[in-house]
Amino acid sequence: MCNLYSSLKGNEAMRRLFEVDPVRDQLGNAQPRPAIRPKGVAPVVALGRDGERALIEMRWGFLTAQVSKVTGDPIKPRAWNNARDDKLLKSGLWSGSFRERRCLIPLTSFAESKGRKPATYYWFGVASDDPDARPLFAIAGMWRKEREDLREDEAGLTHTMITTEANDLVRPYHAKGRMPVILDPAEYETWLTGTPEQAMELVKPYAPDRMKIVLQGIGETSDPGPDLLA
Questions:
Q1: Cα–Cα dist 20/197, whole Å
Q2: In whole angstroms, what is the distance from residue 5 CA to residue 110 CA?
Q3: What is the pLDDT of residues 68-86, one digit of tens each?
Q4: What is the domain extent for residue 151?
Q5: Using CA atoms, how far apart are residues 224 and 207, in angstroms rounded to an integer?
Q6: Number of domains the chain is built from
Q7: Residue 98 belongs to a domain with what CATH number?
Q8: What does the pLDDT look like over 179-208, one tens digit per residue?
Q9: Sheet holding 33-36: strands in order across?
């Protein structure tokens, strides 16, 4: 399960990669986000009502109501930040969004931890000619608007990322052998506008030779990017 990722690139880089018109960029002056955690706010590329791509901020994790096992009173909603590929068309939590509201999640790396007290964090990115670079890429996601009693802000927009079987690079660092679904730029349009059947064909492990571990360290909780590394 991926519970931590980073998005270090600014608006211009995101607009360029995801082909978003500047007038549809709703992020404001986006700042680097070295550690995005469940319920945290992050940039998402989604289709507007007119079918055009937009850059929007959403909170990470679909919300479901919870009650205290002791008192029965409502407590903070649970955030479901990962959706398994084998549940997309079966689960009521996921199926509507997968069919109607798919999105792209911009990022520069995601983390998996191994061990305990303290854990070692391994940050994964896509490969490039520059060994220190953090290229921008996209994870397959879905989004929805939460009901009013669960919202943590006025907009109430949330996103979740889709996971699949891990490739050979990620598998040793994930206890359950899972990884996020990484999409190539040529697949973005199909993911956003294709049929559920066409989208499902894109849900597969990313080639391990096209990825790399960009950072690792004991107790690491963020990826500051190569410019800030000593």
A1: 25
A2: 4
A3: 788 877 778 888 999 999 9
A4: 5-228
A5: 25
A6: 1
A7: 3.90.1680.10
A8: 999 999 999 999 999 999 999 999 999 999
A9: 33-36, 5-7, 109-114, 120-126, 211-218
Under 8 Å between Cβ of 40 and 48 = no
25 touches 55 (CB < 8 A): yes
**DSSP-assigned letters across all residues of 189-225:** HHHHHS-HHHHHTT-SPPPGGGEEEEEEEET------
The tens digit of pLDDT for each residue in 110-166 reads 999 988 878 899 999 999 887 678 999 999 999 999 988 778 777 899 999 999 999
Do 89 and 95 meet the contact criterion of CB atoms below 8 Å apart?
yes
177: left (phi over 0), alpha (psi -120 to 50) or beta: left
Q: Whole-model pTM?
A: 0.94
CB atoms within 10 A of CB 159: 27
